[in-house]
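Reopening this ticket.

The earlier resolution said the output was attached, but the attachment link was broken on my side. Pasting everything inline this time so it's all in one place.
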Amino acid sequence: MATKPTSSTKATVKSAARLGVGTLMIMNIVAVVSLRGLPAEAVYGMSSAFYYLFAALVFLIPVSLVAAELASLFPYQQGGMFRWIGEAFGSKLGFLGIWLQWVESTIWFPTVLTFGAVSLAFIGMDHVADSHLAANKFYTIAVVLAIYWIATLISMKGLGWVGKISKIGGMVGTIIPAGILVVCGVVFLATGGHSQMDFHGDFFPDLSNFDNIVLAASIFLFYAGMEMSGVHVRDIKNPTVNYPKAVFGGALVTVLIFVLGTYALGIIIPGKDINLVQSLLVGFDNYFQAFHMNWFTPIIAIALAMGVLAGVLTWVAGPSKGVFAVGQAGYLPPFFQKTNKAGVQKNILLIQGGAVTLLSLLFVVMPSVESFYQILSQLTVLLYLIAYLLMFASVIRLRYSMKNAKRPFRIGSKGNLLLWIVAGIGFLGSLLAFVLSFFPPDQIAMGSKTVWYAVLFGGVALFVILPFIILAFRKPSWVNPKSDFVPFHWQTDPKSQALLNAAQEAYEAKEAAKEAAETTPVPTTESNSDSSR
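Inline output:
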């Protein structure tokens, strides 16, 4: 006969969903790093490192620092981008921020999954046939949708499943393949292999070539996502300490993977032969042929596909969870607040899946898989950068509107000058990338430029206006009575910041007591019966 779950069983389930520093760091790396982006920068040769380091200085580091301060400022208030922007500029712009993050990730799925489809195409041993299969639009659509819906079904199982699979998939499909690629490059050169990359080339690129700047602007999206884990802040052990650790550790590994991996790819493939979609697999295959290890190509292809699944899982569970928390606070109709037995936002995930399915059909109207890949990538850059512009502005505004609030992690120990420098650089860098992202790169055959501009300008306008239309129809009945969404600080007495801090301390103490209870051994039924004897 089935027994009721005991309190210890519930504690075990709850604690299983807690995220440690290592798991969160790998989730951050998987969310940010995609080896699919290496070919786009490998065409620049030695100067590719300049672009990576420049983008890290003006974007990745500012994003990491700002996200760490904002997450430590609101470690137990859910909402992610919505919370951070909403505290500074009000709920409407906060809703716009989390909405753009969610929409951006939805549009991004077909691009990263295209890389997964290409990876699976190279499982066969006939590389000519594999290349033709990878370029087939209908094959790509089928694989994109299959991987995405598998990721969605796994996400329905809850955060515990997402964390475990993301951790394993991130190691097997991203970090380990990146290491193998770098080792292959070193061994190839050490054994007398001829490098296709000119190591005597200029580290600093020709910035007078506007086309180079436009294509390089897309590197900002490579580093996007380090703040996304902020929606899991309540699921992190000791978030005020562990969240910054996970963010900074992930940022360092991210830069190393991109710089070294790009160089390794440039060593084995001539710049003129690089294809944005297929060249990573071709690079691996070229190395394995040189080492007489052709049998390893299918293995690495499967591993890379696992990495794609892990990355998609992280993004399926992240922004959608933020939108769900915001919806329960009354910003979305009750339909979007429905959950399954595991407490997962099922309707939001299903709607997201429908959007991904429709976007995938765009393959049939674009001139090539590569052009489809590039135009959607540019649209995701534009939408995400708007959210980042709001985030950078928010952290500065909150330094003044909530100057007495506790900040376990703070940019600059005293004063606000360092914050202005860090957030200011991030804001200006994002603004520059936003403007440049509207220009089509001449290096890629895009077909009609009319389609390019129509998709980008029309897409940005549509997705920025939509959240305000939704809010215009907002009703009091949308608020979920079971929601524990913490009000914004400006929704309380502005003079009662001390009370807000006290409430946060009380919540921290409550969480600490819960964790202590979870780790306290509970007597088993047998021990109870023994004592009764």
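Reporter confirms the inline version is readable. The chain is about 70% helix and 0% strand. The radius of gyration is 24 Å.
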